[in-house]
Amino acid sequence: MRRKGTDTRAEIQDVALALFTEHGYDATSMREIAERLDITKAALYYHFKSKEAIILSLFEEHLSAFDELLAWAAAQPHSPQLSSKLLGGWLALSTGRGLPIMRFAAANQTALRTVLPADQGTVQQRLEKATQIISGPDAPLQERLRVRMALLSVHITVMASHETEAGDADILAAATHAAALLTGDLFPAPQLPLTERCGSTGMWPETTGDQRCS
């Protein structure tokens, strides 16, 4: 069965990310990525011109998802329910493909700094924006710190799960529980999205009430 173009692109990203994390970014060649996928180098270069292009595409898509979530949340009136939904959305985006991206970033800091453009902003900046939206104006320092810890719960859980049998679902469940414990007296427990993202106009269809995935 022939791969569709979008499927091949996603497969290349996933396989490259796994190889970069396993062997190191510098030690992995485009030839090895093509061999692992059982495609020709020409087919690989049709989708991505270099290793840098693969990594850039992954992080652009990943950061764009967070930006979309933050833009949606910033347009809503502040409420405990909004804080719950934003925290839940952040946790959900941090799992799935977010987990291997997180592992790659931890193992390839130098390569990452040379590949990503400086004008894209950092995860830290997005973390601060999410904290401001969730905490609301004039929140005391201790509350803001607890919210930041909750936003980082997936990252902490990934480190804690090292050399265990924990899968993505286990990590998300543990991180969500930890986030709820940290913020339980501030707003309701994090609400995880009920559906996957379905494009830029349907970020969280179950929360906006007027959009649905097709």
UniProtKB/TrEMBL annotation:
The keyword Transit peptide does not apply. Residues 29-48 bind DNA. The keyword Amino-acid biosynthesis does not apply. Residues 6-66 form the HTH tetR-type domain. It holds the Pfam family TetR_N. It comes from the Bacteria. Transmembrane segments: none annotated. It comes from Streptosporangium lutulentum. Keywords: DNA-binding, Transcription, Transcription regulation. This is AcrR family transcriptional regulator.
